[in-house]
Amino acid sequence: MIERKQAKLIDSSRTFTLRKHWKSWLLILLGAIFLWGMLNYREQFSLTAMAQQETLLRDYYAQHRVSSYVIAFIVYAIITGTSFPGAVVLTLFCGWLFGLYAGVVLVSFASTTGATLAFLASRFFFRDFVTTKFGNSLKKIEQALKKEGAFYLFSLRLIPAVPFFVINLVMGLTPIRTRTFWWVSQLGMLPGTIVYVYAGSNVPTINELAENGLSGIMTPRLWLAFALLAIFPYFIRRILTLFSK
Length: 245
Hints:
83% of the residues lie in helices and 0% in strands. It has helices at 2-20, 22-41, 47-52, 54-63, 65-82, 87-98, 100-124, 127-133, 135-148, 150-158, 164-171, 178-201, 206-212, 220-244. The longest helix is centred in the middle third of the chain and has 25 residues, at 100-124. 27% of the residues are buried. It has one domain (53-244).
């Protein structure tokens, strides 16, 4: 009888321990999945791999336009949400395949969806991990948010001094609302999205881009677009400073 009670106590203790640390186990599981994806699928999102499937991709898009948009949206959201390498390549690819206008709409909403998913995961699942890993960044961002509000997030999106994935994770631990995070990120990332999708829409073939890189397709218009992207954050920052006085 005593042994049965002891066994029940041990089982209850194990169950409690598992429930108490379920977030840690989830983090380990997601980390393992991410690592597995990195090892097995990283090359699939390279320009070289896409160049080899160029004709197939064009044909599929011509025959299945809706599913092409849906697949591209889901893949892009997952990549940005998990910080999987390849977002820039996919942005260029979307510009090449879908064109400027459709590409900008798709990439803009997909990137914001991925960022918001990372934001929510940080807020509800990975608080301890993010606090330990990015504690210093969290303190600075919280102080800046108190002073400048959502404009600070907007300026971070325009001036990527901090990697976007860090912004997504750290912002999840601040009091900022999910709705505010979403629309500010949407606006803040839009200029860069437009420029890179525009660059992709000017690519004659993926094979040419893979061989020569972005510099191989640069035109005066593209140089101007990237130059405007470089000075745009400072211009906006100046305007915000004037309005805050």
